[in-house]
C-alpha cells in the first residue's frame, strides 16, 4: 500500500529510486574524570584526533571535480576553517586541562557553548550555521572514538539510490553526489541549512524535516521524491509512477529550454524591462550570475568576515575581501553592512553587553553599528576604498526610522572626509540605501524614500517580524506565510513609496527567487529582483511570458478583496497564468 509523506521541499526536481538508509549519526561518547597525570596525554589524544579529522575533510575537498561551482567547494573550506578555529580547538583543550575531563566530554561542552550562541541569533541564515558546528564537532568526535561512518556505495552502472538519513553533512553530500545519488530525504534541517543549499547548487531533489523518515521508509523500497512541495510517495502504484515519470520528462525539457534564455533581456510581453540581480557570497557566484544573465549583485553579505575568530577584521583585511568581489562583478554591487547581534560579538573578543533575552528585538545590525561607531567606521572606510574598483552601493540593514538612516549617513560622510584627507581613492559617489525588513520601516517608507538612494526589501525578516514567528522554529514555522495580506500590503506600500520618490526598489529576500511568487511581485510593481544565481533563468522565463499590465490589474483586485477565499483564488490565477481576467 502506498504511503504519502510530507516534509520541507528545499531542492526542486523529481526522483524515482530505491531507498538506502544512512544510520543515525548520534554517537555514544563517554564522560569521565582524569587523573592529573593523564591530562596532557588526553590533550595529545585530542590533537591527534583533530589532525585525522582535518585530513579526512581535506581528502573530501581534493575529490571535488574540476569545474564544480565554487560555492560547493566553499562549504568544505568553511568547515576546514571552523575545525581549526581556536573557539573549538583551544576551548576544548582548556576544558580538558581546567575541568580534568576526557576529550569527548570537553568537545561536547565546546559544541554546546557555540551552538547556544548561534541559536540566539535572529538572522535565519546565520542561525542555521549551528549545523556547521554540529557537523565539524561530529567529525572530530568520530575520530576520537575511531567510529568512522561508512557512506552507502552506488556501484558504477548501478541504479541510483535515494538517501534517507537523520541529517547529512556537506562533505557527505559532495561524496554522494559523485555516486549517482538521485535524491536526499532527511529527518532534520530547514530551507537554509547547508544540506538544502548544497542540494540546490548540485541540482539534486531534496526533502528535509521529514520526521521519522528512517522508521517509515524501508531499505530497498521504491519511492518518489518531489522536491518542490516536499512530498515523498512510498510504494507508488502504476498510475502514480506513470504520472511522475511524465513530470520528470517535462522538467528535463523545461531545463533544456531555460538554457536558451542566457543572454536574452528580461522583458515582459508588454515591453516592461525588469532588472535581475544576484545574491552572492563568493567571486565564483558572480561568474555564475553573469552567465545566467544577472545584471549585477543585489546583496553581498559581509558577516563571514567577523565570524569564527577572536579579533575583529582590520580595515585592510576587509578592503582586500571587498576588492576581490567588486573586481569580479560586472555591473553594480550592493554590499550590506554588518548584520550581527551583540550576542555574537563575544566571538570577536568584544563583549558589548549581556546577551539579550530576545535578540530579535535587541542590539543588532545598524543598531549595533551606531552604538559602536568605531566598528562601523572601519567597515565603511574599507567599503569606500573598494568603491574605486567598481559600482559599489552600501545597504544598511534593519533600518527602522529616519533618524537611524541619517545618523548612518553622517558617519559615512565622516569616513569619506578622513579618506579624502589621506589621499585615498574612492568613487565620487557611493549610493546608500536602506533594507526594508522591519514593519516600521515599510510603514514609514514615504519618509525614508525622501532621503535613501534606494530600497531593498528583505522579505525573510519582514515576514517574520510582521507575523511574529521564527521560521527556523519547527513549532511555529508553519505560520510563515509570504502571502499573508499584511505582508503583501507592506510590500506594495514600499514599492509605491519608492516609485513616488523616484528611487529604485529591489527585493533580495527569498521571495524574489521563488517562481511561485514572480507574477505576484510583478503585479505589485516590483521591477528589481535579486536572488540566488541558479534562480535567474527561471524567473526570467516567467517575466518574458507575462503581461505585466494584466498582472497589475489582477493584483489590485486581490489587494482590495476582503474575502480570503477570493484572494487565494486570485493568487492561484496569477501563478497559473499572466493575470488576465
TrEMBL record:
Swiss-Prot/TrEMBL catalytic activity: L-histidyl-[protein] + phosphoenolpyruvate = N(pros)-phospho-L-histidyl-[protein] + pyruvate
Q: Name one GO cellular component term.
A: cytoplasm
Q: Where is the active site?
A: 194, 508
Where does the Phosphotransferase system enzyme I N-terminal domain start and stop, copy by copy? 6-129
User: What are the PEP-utilising enzyme mobile domain coordinates in residue numbering?
Assistant: 159-230
Cofactor(s) the protein needs: Mg(2+)
Q: What is its main location?
A: cytoplasm
Q: Name one GO biological process term.
A: phosphoenolpyruvate-dependent sugar phosphotransferase system
Q: Where does Mg(2+) bind?
A: 437, 461
* Family annotation (InterPro entries): PEP-util_enz_mobile_dom, PEP-utilizing_PTS_enzyme, PEP_util_C, Phosphohistidine_dom_sf, PTS_EI, PTS_EI-like, PTS_EIN, PtsI_HPr-bd_sf
| Domain PEP-utilising enzyme C-terminal, first and last residues per copy | 260-545
**According to its UniProt record, where is this protein located?**
Cytoplasm
Which terms in the Gene Ontology molecular function aspect does this entry carry? Answer: kinase activity; metal ion binding; phosphoenolpyruvate-protein phosphotransferase activity
State its role.
General (non sugar-specific) component of the phosphoenolpyruvate-dependent sugar phosphotransferase system (sugar PTS). This major carbohydrate active-transport system catalyzes the phosphorylation of incoming sugar substrates concomitantly with their translocation across the cell membrane. Enzyme I transfers the phosphoryl group from phosphoenolpyruvate (PEP) to the phosphoryl carrier protein (HPr).
In the record, the note on similarity to other proteins reads: Belongs to the PEP-utilizing enzyme family.
Q: What is this protein called?
A: Phosphoenolpyruvate-protein phosphotransferase
Q: Which species does the entry assign this protein to?
A: Solimonas fluminis
Top-level taxonomy: Bacteria, Pseudomonadati, Pseudomonadota, Gammaproteobacteria, Nevskiales
Amino acid at each position: 500500500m502506498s504511503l504519502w509523506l510530507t516534509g520541507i521541499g528545499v531542492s526542486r526536481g523529481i526522483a524515482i529510486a530505491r531507498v538506502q538508509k544512512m544510520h543515525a549519526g548520534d554517537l555514544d561518547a563517554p564522560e569521565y574524570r582524569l587523573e592529573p597525570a593523564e591530562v596532557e596525554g588526553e590533550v595529545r589524544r585530542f590533537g591527534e584526533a583533530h589532525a585525522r579529522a582535518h585530513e579526512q575533510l581535506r581528502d573530501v575537498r581534493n575529490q571535488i571535480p574540476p569545474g564544480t561551482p565554487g560555492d560547493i567547494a566553499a562549504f568544505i573550506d568553511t568547515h576546514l576553517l571552523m575545525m581549526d578555529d581556536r573557539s573549538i580547538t583551544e576551548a576544548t583543550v582548556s576544558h580538558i586541562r581546567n575541568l580534568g575531563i576526557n576529550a569527548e566530554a570537553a568537545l561536547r561542552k565546546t559544541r554546546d557553548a557555540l551552538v547556544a550562541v548561534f541559536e540566539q541569533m535572529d538572522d535565519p541564515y546565520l542561525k542555521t550555521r549551528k549545523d556547521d558546528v554540529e557537523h565539524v564537532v561530529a567529525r572530530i568526535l568520530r575520530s576520537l572514538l575511531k567510529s568512522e561512518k561508512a557512506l552507502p556505495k552506488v556501484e558504477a552502472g548501478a541504479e541510483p539510490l535515494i538517501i534517507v538519513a537523520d541529517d547529512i553533512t556537506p562533505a557527505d553530500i559532495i561524496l554522494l553526489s559523485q555516486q549517482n545519488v538521485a535524491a536526499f530525504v532527511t529527518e532534520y534541517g530547514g530551507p537554509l541549512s547547508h544540506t538544502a543549499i548544497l542540494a540546490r547548487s548540485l541540482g539534486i531533489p531534496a526533502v528535509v524535516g521529514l520526521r521519522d523518515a528512517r522508521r517509515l521508509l524501508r531499505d530497498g523500497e521504491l519511492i518518489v521524491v518531489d522536491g518542490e512541495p516536499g512530498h515523498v510517495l512510498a510504494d507508488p502504484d502504476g498510475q502514480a509512477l506513470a504520472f511522475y515519470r511524465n513530470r520528470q520528462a517535462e522538467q528535463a525539457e523545461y531545463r533544456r529550454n531555460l538554457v536558451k534564455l542566457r543572454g536574452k533581456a528580461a522583458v515582459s510581453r508588454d515591453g516592461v524591462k525588469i532588472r535581475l540581480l544576484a545574491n552572492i557570497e563568493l567571486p565564483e557566484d558572480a561568474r555564475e550570475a553573469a552567465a545566467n544573465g544577472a545584471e549585477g549583485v543585489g546583496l553581498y553579505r559581509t558577516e563571514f568576515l567577523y565570524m569564527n575568530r577572536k579579533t575583529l577584521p582590520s580595515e585592510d583585511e576587509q578592503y582586500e575581501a571587498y576588492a576581490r568581489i567588486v573586481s569580479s562583478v560586472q555591473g553594480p554591487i550592493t554590499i550590506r553592512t554588518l548584520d550581527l547581534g551583540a550576542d555574537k560579538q563575544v566571538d570577536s573578543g568584544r563583549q558589548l553587553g549581556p546577551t539579550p533575552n530576545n535578540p530579535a528585538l535587541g542590539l543588532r545590525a545598524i543598531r549595533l553599528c551606531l552604538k559602536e561607531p568605531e566598528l562601523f567606521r572601519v567597515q565603511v572606510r574599507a567599503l569606500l576604498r573598494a568603491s574605486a574598483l567598481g559600482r559599489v552601493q552600501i545597504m544598511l540593514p534593519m533600518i527602522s526610522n529616519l533618524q537611524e538612516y541619517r545618523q548612518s549617513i553622517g558617519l559615512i560622510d565622516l569616513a569619506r572626509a578622513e579618506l579624502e584627507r589621506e589621499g585615498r581613492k574612492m568613487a565620487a559617489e557611493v549610493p546608500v540605501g536602506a533594507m526594508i525588513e522591519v514593519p516600521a520601516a515599510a510603514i514609514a517608507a514615504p519618509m525614508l524614500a525622501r532621503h535613501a538612494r534606494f530600497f531593498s526589501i528583505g522579505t525573510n525578516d519582514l515576514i517574520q517580524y510582521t507575523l511574529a514567528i521564527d521560521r527556523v522554529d519547527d513549532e511555529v514555522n508553519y505560520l510563515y506565510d509570504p502571502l499573508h495580506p499584511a505582508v503583501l500590503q507592506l510590500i506594495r506600500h514600499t514599492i509605491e513609496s519608492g516609485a513616488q520618490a523616484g528611487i529604485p526598489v529591489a527585493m533580495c529576500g527569498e521571495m524574489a527567487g521563488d517562481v511561485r511568487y514572480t507574477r505576484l511581485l510583478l503585479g505589485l510593481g516590483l521591477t528589481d529582483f535579486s536572488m540566488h544565481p541558479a534562480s535567474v533563468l527561471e524567473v526570467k522565463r516567467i517575466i518574458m511570458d507575462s503581461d505585466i499590465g494584466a498582472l497589475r490589474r489582477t493584483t489590485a483586485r486581490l489587494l482590495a478583496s476582503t474575502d480570503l477565499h477570493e484572494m487565494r483564488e486570485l493568487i492561484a490565477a496569477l501563478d497559473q497564468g499572466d493575470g488576465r481576467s
